[in-house]
Every structure is written in structure tokens, then in C-alpha cells.
Design brief:
The protein has two domains: 67 residues; 99 residues, Band 7 domain (Tetrahydropterin Synthase, Chain A, 2-Layer Sandwich). It is 61% helix and 17% strand. It contains five helices and four strands. Strands 1, 2, 3 and 4 form a four-stranded antiparallel beta sheet that branches. Helix 3 packs antiparallel against helix 5. It is elongated, with a radius of gyration of 33 Å. The protein starts with a helix and ends with a strand.
């Protein structure tokens, strides 16, 4: 019977050693996970700032004016019937225009009725098939830009952005 208490003591010591080892492994894994997460945040978040700094640096070193965004003018929403047979579909579009200069912005505001007229004529002449899909929208965007530039004499519309485009 003297041997029985020694076996019990040995049995009690083994779980305590295994429990300590579990905590060491868990803390090691947690440290690795937190370290990996910290590295991932540093890599993705802070490395993006370097790219932005490089772009700003390049612009500061004589970057072209064409790469800088011009003034943006938002136009009121246009709602027109499409040229589909029966006239059952309509188009709702909201446009933002990027202009070349501040003077262009002043001219655009002075000629806004003419610009809106050209946009309405262009939109209402389209069928659903013509504006369907990315290619149709791209062609429409280019046509609208050309029509607006034909109205403006001093400045130009650099880009036309669709901020709302609904066909129903």
C-alpha cells in the first residue's frame, strides 16, 4: 500500500505539467496571431500611404496639369422618355462634369440652358438597346461630352460622370 500514494502523487504531477505546457502553447500561438495581424495591418495600411506620397511627390516635381482633377459641377437630374416604340421607357440620369478650369465653370453656369438642352436632346434620342450595357453608357458619355464642348467656347468638359443612371 505504500506504493499506492506515490502513484497518486505522480499522477497528480503529470496533469499540472501538461496544463502549464498548454498555456505556453496557447500564449505562443496568440502572440504569433497578434504579431501576424499587426504585420498585415502595417503592410496594407501603411504601404498605401507610401504610394500616395509618391504620387504627390511626382506631381510636385512637375507633374502634368492634365493629371490633376478639375473643378466638378453637379447638374440637376434629367428625366426623359427614351426613343423606344410606344414610349414606355424613361431614363433618369444625374451627371457630374469635370471641367478643365475655373473659367470653364463660370462659362458653364452662364450657358446652362444650352447645355441642358443638348443633354436632353442626346438622351431622348437614344433607345434602350443603345444605352444598355457598359459599351452603350460609354458611347453616351462621350457623346454628351462632345455636345457640351460644342456649346462651350472658352472652357471644356474634361470628363462626364454618371452619378445616377436608371432606366424604367
Amino acid at each position: 500500500m505504500a506504493e499506492a500514494p506515490e502513484d497518486q502523487e505522480a499522477a497528480q504531477e503529470e496533469p499540472s505539467k501538461g496544463g502549464a505546457m498548454k498555456w505556453i502553447i496557447i500564449s505562443l500561438v496568440a502572440t504569433l496571431v497578434l504579431g501576424g495581424g499587426g504585420f498585415a495591418v502595417w503592410w496594407f495600411v501603411l504601404s498605401g500611404d507610401d504610394k500616395k506620397a509618391d504620387v504627390v511627390k511626382k506631381k510636385g516635381e512637375g507633374g502634368s496639369e492634365a493629371s490633376l482633377p478639375g473643378p466638378i459641377v453637379s447638374l440637376k437630374t434629367f428625366i426623359v422618355n427614351l426613343a423606344d416604340p410606344g414610349g414606355r421607357r424613361y431614363l433618369k440620369v444625374k451627371l457630374d462634369l469635370e471641367l478643365t478650369t475655373k473659367d470653364s465653370e463660370k462659362e458653364l453656369k452662364g450657358r446652362l440652358p444650352e447645355v441642358r438642352d443638348q443633354i436632353i436632346l442626346a438622351l431622348s434620342s437614344k433607345t434602350y438597346q443603345q444605352i444598355q450595357g457598359i459599351a452603350g453608357k460609354t458611347v453616351l458619355r462621350e457623346e454628351l461630352t462632345a455636345r457640351m464642348n460644342s456649346v462651350l467656347k472658352k472652357g471644356q468638359v474634361k470628363k462626364t460622370y454618371f452619378t445616377e443612371f436608371v432606366v424604367q
